[in-house]
Amino acid sequence: DLGDKGVEVVGGMVVAGLLPVMASLTSINLIDNNLTNYGRNMTGIREIASAIRKSPSLTSIDLSLNYLGSEGAKALAPAVRDSASLTSINLPFNNLGSEGAKALAPALRDSPSVTSINLRANGLGPEGAKALAPGIRPSVTSLNLAYNDFGPEGAEALAPALGNSTSITSIDLSINLFGPEGAKALASAIAVNASLTSINLQYNRFGPEGAKTLAPAIRDSPSLTSIDLVGNFMGVEGEALLREAVEGRPGIELQLW
Fold this sequence. Notes:
alpha/beta
């Protein structure tokens, strides 16, 4: 655990030198270490990316809050694609943008091992959603895409991939400004996905119309056990429809407040 330890660019290069020779290391935390000197120097992250490819054992890496930007995403993409051991990658709060999503998507699609992806709060936008959708591989089980300003267009892009996934169990799509149109798109995926057990859709401005669309999908879902819809201003009638959708289904948790 090297989270918030002032590693910075030079320290990142030192860490990179250790990864390939530590044969038992499975997880490393490098949160909030300014590995790129506020996006001005990519040397450290490029060295770390190269080391990930060579590591014989690394399964999880957390690079949150490191000012990676789209160039950092481009540097990491080959490592994500080629690592035979990496299963979990965490990149929240890195300002990756849509270009970063475009760089990572093919790598995620072709990765032989990644099952958990966290890209929370990266300003990916609708174009980022369109780029990522093909990268949601059948083996992905956990996906965090919260707080990325996807809007309804992003929901429409992601929905088919989510609906077709046979392995995803947990997804966080909170704070994405989907609105009622986004609810319609996601409802089609929720109704047919047989592996999804947990979905977080907090603060997406669904309103009463979104609730009307989501309620039948939740009712018909073959697998959901946890649904978080806090902060969607769905009104008394909309919330009543959602409660009816889970009525008589033991073990299912619906959060509206």
